[in-house]
Amino acid sequence: MIPTYEDAIQLLKNRPEAKEWEELAIALRRASIHKPVAWHFPVAACDAVGSKPNAAVPAVTAIICAHMALMLVDDILDEDPRGGYHQLGAGRAANLAMGLASLGNIILLSD
After folding, report:
1. Long-range CB contacts (< 8 A, 24+ apart) of 69-76?
2. Phi, psi dihedral angles at 52 (to 5 degrees)
3. Do 17 and 103 form a contact (C-beta atoms < 8 A)?
4. How far lies 17's CA from each of 3, 13, 20, 35, 90, in Å?
5. What are phi and psi of 54, to 5 degrees?
6. Residues 65, 72: Cα–Cα separation, whole Å
7. Crossing angle, helix 57-78 and helix 5-14, to 10 degrees?
Protein backbone atom coordinates (compact mmCIF):
# COMPACT_ATOMS: atom_id res chain seq x y z
CA MET A 1 0.00 0.00 0.00
CA ILE A 2 1.40 3.37 -0.99
CA PRO A 3 0.91 5.90 1.83
CA THR A 4 -1.12 8.94 1.06
CA TYR A 5 -1.20 12.46 2.39
CA GLU A 6 -4.31 11.42 4.31
CA ASP A 7 -2.36 8.62 6.08
CA ALA A 8 0.18 11.15 7.29
CA ILE A 9 -2.50 13.62 8.38
CA GLN A 10 -4.30 10.86 10.26
CA LEU A 11 -1.07 9.96 12.08
CA LEU A 12 -0.63 13.62 12.94
CA LYS A 13 -4.21 14.08 14.16
CA ASN A 14 -4.01 10.93 16.30
CA ARG A 15 -1.02 12.17 18.27
CA PRO A 16 -2.02 13.07 21.84
CA GLU A 17 -0.09 16.32 21.47
CA ALA A 18 -2.32 17.38 18.57
CA LYS A 19 -5.80 16.30 19.66
CA GLU A 20 -6.89 19.66 21.10
CA TRP A 21 -4.71 21.89 18.93
CA GLU A 22 -7.13 24.15 17.03
CA GLU A 23 -4.38 26.06 15.22
CA LEU A 24 -3.01 22.79 13.90
CA ALA A 25 -6.37 21.90 12.37
CA ILE A 26 -6.43 25.29 10.64
CA ALA A 27 -2.87 24.84 9.34
CA LEU A 28 -3.66 21.34 8.06
CA ARG A 29 -6.65 22.60 6.11
CA ARG A 30 -4.48 25.27 4.48
CA ALA A 31 -1.66 22.82 3.73
CA SER A 32 -3.96 20.20 2.24
CA ILE A 33 -4.63 22.49 -0.71
CA HIS A 34 -1.02 22.42 -1.97
CA LYS A 35 0.56 19.02 -1.12
CA PRO A 36 4.13 19.80 -2.28
CA VAL A 37 6.18 17.22 -4.17
CA ALA A 38 8.68 17.03 -1.28
CA TRP A 39 6.05 15.20 0.75
CA HIS A 40 6.55 12.21 -1.55
CA PHE A 41 10.33 11.91 -1.13
CA PRO A 42 10.25 9.49 1.85
CA VAL A 43 7.96 7.15 -0.12
CA ALA A 44 10.40 7.14 -3.03
CA ALA A 45 13.29 6.51 -0.62
CA CYS A 46 11.51 3.52 0.94
CA ASP A 47 10.81 2.14 -2.50
CA ALA A 48 14.44 2.63 -3.56
CA VAL A 49 15.78 0.49 -0.70
CA GLY A 50 13.08 -2.16 -0.97
CA SER A 51 11.21 -1.18 2.17
CA LYS A 52 7.46 -1.18 2.45
CA PRO A 53 6.16 2.23 1.33
CA ASN A 54 3.92 2.42 4.40
CA ALA A 55 7.10 2.66 6.50
CA ALA A 56 7.45 6.18 5.09
CA VAL A 57 4.32 7.54 6.80
CA PRO A 58 6.19 8.94 9.86
CA ALA A 59 8.78 10.59 7.58
CA VAL A 60 6.07 12.04 5.33
CA THR A 61 4.31 13.35 8.44
CA ALA A 62 7.52 14.96 9.72
CA ILE A 63 8.10 16.61 6.34
CA ILE A 64 4.54 17.94 6.38
CA CYS A 65 5.16 19.42 9.84
CA ALA A 66 8.48 20.96 8.79
CA HIS A 67 7.03 22.37 5.58
CA MET A 68 4.07 23.95 7.35
CA ALA A 69 6.39 25.43 10.00
CA LEU A 70 8.70 26.91 7.36
CA MET A 71 5.79 28.38 5.42
CA LEU A 72 4.33 30.01 8.53
CA VAL A 73 7.65 31.66 9.41
CA ASP A 74 8.36 32.61 5.79
CA ASP A 75 4.95 34.27 5.47
CA ILE A 76 5.56 36.27 8.65
CA LEU A 77 9.01 37.41 7.49
CA ASP A 78 7.82 38.24 3.98
CA GLU A 79 4.62 39.86 5.28
CA ASP A 80 2.75 37.72 2.76
CA PRO A 81 -0.79 39.12 2.42
CA ARG A 82 -2.12 35.54 2.01
CA GLY A 83 -0.23 34.15 5.01
CA GLY A 84 -1.99 32.20 7.72
CA TYR A 85 -0.52 34.50 10.34
CA HIS A 86 -3.17 37.08 9.47
CA GLN A 87 -5.83 34.86 11.02
CA LEU A 88 -3.66 33.65 13.90
CA GLY A 89 -1.53 36.68 14.62
CA ALA A 90 2.24 36.66 14.16
CA GLY A 91 2.98 35.45 17.69
CA ARG A 92 0.55 32.53 17.58
CA ALA A 93 1.74 31.61 14.08
CA ALA A 94 5.35 31.58 15.27
CA ASN A 95 4.37 29.41 18.25
CA LEU A 96 2.51 27.07 15.90
CA ALA A 97 5.59 26.86 13.67
CA MET A 98 7.79 25.89 16.62
CA GLY A 99 5.22 23.36 17.79
CA LEU A 100 4.99 21.82 14.33
CA ALA A 101 8.76 21.51 14.09
CA SER A 102 8.86 19.80 17.48
CA LEU A 103 5.94 17.52 16.66
CA GLY A 104 7.64 16.36 13.47
CA ASN A 105 10.70 15.39 15.46
CA ILE A 106 8.59 13.58 18.08
CA ILE A 107 6.88 11.58 15.34
CA LEU A 108 10.19 10.58 13.77
CA LEU A 109 11.59 9.49 17.11
CA SER A 110 8.54 7.57 18.29
CA ASP A 111 7.07 5.87 15.23
Report:
1. 69/96, 69/97, 69/98, 69/100, 69/101, 69/104, 70/97, 71/31, 72/27, 72/96, 72/97, 72/100, 73/97
2. -70, 130
3. yes
4. 22, 9, 8, 23, 22
5. -65, -20
6. 11
7. 80
Neighbours of 50 (CB within 10 A): 6
pTM of the model: 0.76
CB 26 within 8 A of CB 87: yes
pLDDT in tens, the chain (111 residues): 556 677 877 888 888 877 778 777 777 777 667 666 666 677 777 777 777 767 778 888 888 888 889 988 999 999 888 887 888 888 888 998 998 999 999 988 886
